[in-house]
Amino acid sequence: EAGVTQSPTHLIKTRGQQATLRCSPISGHTSVYWYQQALGLGLQFLLWYDEGEERNRGNFPPRFSGRQFPNYSSELNVNALELEDSALYLCASSPGGYNEQFFGPGTRLTVL
Amino acid sequence: AQSVTQLDSHVSVSEGTPVLLRCNYSSSYSPSLFWYVQHPNKGLQLLLKYTSAATLVKGINGFEAEFKKSETSFHLTKPSAHMSDAAEYFCVVSVAFSGGYNKLIFGAGTRLAVHP
């Protein structure tokens, strides 16, 4: 069974640009979660999608947004990139919202 | 409010010696607890989970954790460390929202170093 996949592996952008990160959950999983892991700040919850809807949002500004598609894959968009957005962005999926989460390998975003 | 505290930011052991990574949680009800491991530049892998069944939980790679309600602890142990165990370990508590949904609250992580 394929695990959670994320693309791209690495992404380099300049300040002010937009970044789009993609995630494909494990087959059969309807919930997708996004986390930011910045140096020194630990894992911070960003967004949670289930059945195509945003269910919960962490303490991040509106320029962090996303969506979930009918096939349950998901996109995270970060607008007006700032230097402090540089981090590892992890996607996780679960079979519904009340189970353990399975993580992808992450996308390393670097903002110059 | 639910929270989780990992008591050590760094732990260093010699190969073949026991590992103890400490975690205390705060929860207003019986929690679901997890340990995840993250190897360098990798995603997180679930080691084990506690969901109100047996208090001693066995996970992958020889790890186990014991849920102690009286101490609000969920420490991770392994009898004999291997070089490949060097990684960052996260203790996690699950928080339930109305409607049957939950989200995970992560501890700050414990970096385990294993020396030959």
Account of the 3D structure:
Chain A is mainly beta. Chain A is 0% helix and 54% strand. The mean pLDDT of chain A is 93. Chain B has a single domain (3-115), classed as Immunoglobulins (Immunoglobulin-like). Chain B is built from no helices and twelve strands. Chain B has strands at 3-6, 10-14, 19-21, 23-26, 32-38, 44-50, 56-58, 64-68, 73-78, 87-97, 101-106, 110-115. In chain B, strands 2, 5, 6, 10, 11 and 12 form a six-stranded mixed beta sheet that branches. Chain B has a four-stranded antiparallel beta sheet with strand order 3-9-8-7, with no helix packed on it. In chain B, strand 10 and strand 11 form a beta hairpin. Chain B is globular and about 50 Å long. Chains A and B meet through strand 5 and strand 10 of A and strand 5, strand 6, strand 10 and strand 11 of B.
CA distance, first residue to last residue of chain A: 37 Å
**Total separate domains of chain B:** 1
Tell me which protein chains meet in the greatest interface and how many residues each side has.
A-B, 22 and 22 residues
The class by helix and strand makeup of chain B works out as: mainly beta
The CATH homologous superfamily name of chain A equals Immunoglobulins
Query: Please, how many helices of chain A?
Result: 0
Would you identify the CATH H-level superfamily of chain B?
A: Immunoglobulins
Name given to the CATH architecture of chain A: Sandwich
Strand content of chain B: over 45%
Query: What structural category characterises the helix and strand content of chain A?
Result: mainly beta
Overall 3D shape of chain B: globular
Strand tally of chain B = 12
What's the overall average pLDDT of chain B, rounded? 90
Instruction: Please give the CATH class of chain A.
Output: Mainly Beta
Helix content of chain B: under 10%
Biggest pleated sheet of chain A: 7 strands, mixed
Quaternary organisation of the protein chains: heterodimer
Predict the CATH topology of chain B: Immunoglobulin-like
